[in-house]
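Entry:
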Amino acid sequence: MASSWLNLENYSIPLEEINLATDNFNPQRCIGGGGFGYVYRGQLSKHWQDRIVAIKRLAKDSYQGEREFRNEVEKISGFYHENIISFLGYCDEDNEMIIVYEYATNGSLDHHLKDQNKMCCITWIQRLKISLEAASGLNYLHAGPGEHKSVIHRDIKSANILLDDNMVAKICDFGLSRSGTKSHPSSHIYTKVAGTQYYIDPTYIESRILRKESDIYSLGVVLFEMLTGMLVYRPSRIGEDNTKTDSLIKLVRKYYPKEPDRLIDPCIKDQISSRSFDTFKKIAWQCISYDFKKRPTLDMVMKRIQEALDIQLQENVSAHFERIGKDNGFNHGKPVAAFTIYKLLLHPNYIEAEKTKFFERLLQIFVTADKYQISNRGTEYWLSCASNLLFLIQRSLKLDAASSVQEPPPSTLAEDEIVEQVQVRNQVLHFKDQLTKYLEYMCNIIFDDMKKELRLLLALAIQVLEF
């Protein structure tokens, strides 16, 4: 352990730097706290690229002593996953126990759950993605990152799921986590019960045996928080006896069997399809089973949430296409369908849901519309849509190219994300080419019709002159 601690010297940040970053731990810089101590928002100096960070200062009388602090630092320094908060450094000068993390702009998930206005801004699609990302981060821990066989977090809750500026979920706070080393591969550990009330696995409380399934139970609680838009210890809006119920999970167990729809957050009721809801609620329900053997694996949790997300995206796209396919007229002189399509193109999730079919369906809308509306106002409308859409796409591509020259993609961007961006861009370029050909084709038809009409008019004029 001593040798591994020595290997972390490169991560050591001087206390003077920490004091400058937090303005000597100014209370106004505090962004969170609890039994462990407090978390501050700070900005490091140029030596650390002026980076905005979260600085966790453990209290001397917290449940984490020096040994636990060192164990946590050693552990998290080996975590590298997009859904695990990034470790940047530590400070142990003057008996301080300080850990420095990346700063998550949108704070913790529980802050959104506490504020109904904030939670209503998180769509069902976003909630599914956050749920999937949290499960992905937890799966990474259970699989055995670094030198550890596996890591059981032991305190999964909405307060320990942070959201970055893109609303990507990142698991944090590993003060209570336990790990099995290569010499101790057991999937369960006998230990003193620790965690947060309402999120703790009941079987763990009864047996004092910590298992991976204990984390899955806690994740299930978070999934129901996402569905209902409520914190587990602040249930509301469900039933008439809210004041008598101190736990969301009690309400879930009451209403799930016969009235599961009552569990849906009213803010997302018009966003959630029955199939997506059914898929999500079933896997969340399995997670909170009293029998740990009946709880699903994290691979299964991720698979089912991904299914719920795909179903919702596909149904959203279908609904949009249904609206686009109709002649929606003009709004302030702009063709409605063109701008609706453009908004869809700005959201890669929709494209990803349909793969290449997305663009095929868009082209089909134009072709079908003109097939049945040729020689009437419909043709004019769809030509206007196509030309406006072509202009919007071309402008976006130029702006995107200019910004990429000024600001190259960050080196931290995952390779698969870069590949996905390139693929989407290539699909958009192909769609632009097809749309251009469509416009050329329609213009040629119109010009041919105009030539025929002009010939008739010319012939008529000649006849009149001869007469």
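The mean pLDDT is 81.
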